[in-house]
Amino acid sequence: MGMRNVKPRHLDRRQLLRAIGFGIAATPFVIGACTDAAAEMVDANGSGSGSSDGSLPSDWANGGTVSMTDKASYPDPFAAATTTCAIVAGVTEGPCTTTTTLDREDISEGWTGLPVRLALKIVDASCAPIAGAVVKIWATNNAGSYSGQTPNNGMCLKDQSYSSMNFMRGARTTNADGVVYFDTCFPGWYRGRAVHIHFQVSSGNTTYKVSQLFFPEDLTASIFSDHVDYKSFGQPDTTFANDNVMSTIPSASRAQNIVEYARMTDGAMLASKVVTVKS
Fold first, then answer.
1. From the CB of residue 163, how many other CB atoms can be counted at a distance below 10 Å?
2. Whole-number mean pLDDT of the chain?
3. How far apart (Å, rounded) are the C-alpha atoms in residues 142 and 245?
4. Which residue has the higher pLDDT, 192 or 37?
5. What is the DSSP code string of 115-131?
6. Alpha helix (H) ranges present in 183-228?
7. Alpha carbon distance 279, 277 (integer Å)
8. CA 168, CA 187: separation in Å to the nearest integer?
9. What are the tens digits of pLDDT across the range 114-127?
10. Cβ(185)–Cβ(108) under 8 Å?
């Protein structure tokens, strides 16, 4: 199921967010800026992740998660010990949520795109892993559309038939190491937002506010410039500097919201982040 020839419709999300009262607020949910013995995951070319790995667009796989043909060889992005977990504030969930919670690892529902293996490690303020926490994520397809029954389908869905679908949505429960994995695709963009993935963590009777993960801007620019599943949509119209979420985070702290990434042998992306939560 592909979207290569669909042009993104412009959506003015900032105006709608103001109209329906979704704002950024302090929450008990936080992203952790964690320092471990090896500060960065090393990508396929040996450079630090979180920056361009020197890959050509043709080096990245396309066609969706079916292209993850070598998952058994992917490294553990959390192999190094996590020693310091700093706390930063969470951010708004936005109006494109759903009440559906689908427990599944592959959330792509067969959509095309650059395949991404997303690994999240949930820890407390002492860097101890939190087992049994439910991690829910949602993002757009490569054309920049959400799916499902949202509070505002007119804005969130570029095709109203997507209301009966749930692509790029799913939930998993952390294992004993506090880790969950999702198989998804690199998100698309829509007007007024930098490329991002929403996520929420809950544990027992405590639900933590959602936050958002971002990708390095040079990586995003490269993908939308030349990748076969993204180049028809053009470059995102929003940078970190004018994104209504990322721009609220001090520049020195923005790395805490940006995933580390590496290109795998099959061309898929392994993206990861350690997330710290506190009640």
1. 16
2. 82
3. 20
4. 192
5. EEEEEEEEE-TT--B-T
6. 217-226
7. 7
8. 9
9. 999 999 999 988 89
10. yes
Res. 243 pLDDT band, cuts 50 70 90? very high
The pLDDT of residue 241 = 92
H-type alpha helices, 172-266: 217-226
Q: CA torsion angle for 152, 153, 156, 158 (degrees, to 10)?
A: -160
Q: Are 131 and 172 in contact (CB under 8 A)?
A: no
CB 269 within 8 A of CB 115: yes
Say how far apart CA 88 and CA 217 lie, in whole Å: 21
Q: Which domain holds residue 202?
A: 13-276
* pLDDT for the residue 10: 38
pTM of this prediction exceeds 0.90: no
**CATH number of the structural domain spanning residue 108:** 2.60.130.10
Q: How far apart are CA 16 and CA 22, in angstroms?
A: 9
**Judging by beta carbons within 10 Å of its beta carbon (0-12, 13-18, 19+), is residue 187 exposed, middle or buried?**
buried
Give the CA distances from residue 3 to residues 45, 58, 113, 153, 188, in Å, rounded to whole numbers and listed in that order. 30, 19, 9, 19, 11
Write 55-58 long-range contacts (CB < 8 A, 24+): 55/222, 55/263, 56/226, 57/222, 57/223, 57/225, 57/226, 57/227, 57/228
Nearest to residue 167, comparing CAs of 214, 110, 117? 110
**Domains held by the chain: number:** 1
Domain assignment present for residue 272? The answer is: yes
Contact 227, 7 (CB under 8 A): no
